[in-house]
């Protein structure tokens, strides 16, 4: 399977990228870097992609396992190298679940399945960054 994305320059430092879903997104940089800050930053998009990929896996498993979860969020905290080209060399991924009836064992299993088996973006990140995965349960 091949993905084909077209990214078009909009002028100054902004680009528009299409998506197979039909939803486009704007990529831009901060005003202090010469952009207008009107879009997503490329490296931040990578972290959103990582969280989104794994989050979709976990959400699907929550549905399949019929688990009760009031809140679910993923925090990604990444260290950027100092030298150019700057890249993420360490990434912490925190899975936060909240609710009165959490089945911690099954939720941890859902997280483990995502990080070990299903999430392709996680596998890509493993090629260039050390990953630290943490799970938190809040009643």
From TrEMBL:
InterPro entries in the record: KH_dom-like_a/b, OsmC/Ohr_fam, OsmC/Ohrsf
Name of the protein this chain belongs to: Putative redox protein
Highest classification ranks of the organism: Bacteria, Pseudomonadati, Bacteroidota, Flavobacteriia, Flavobacteriales
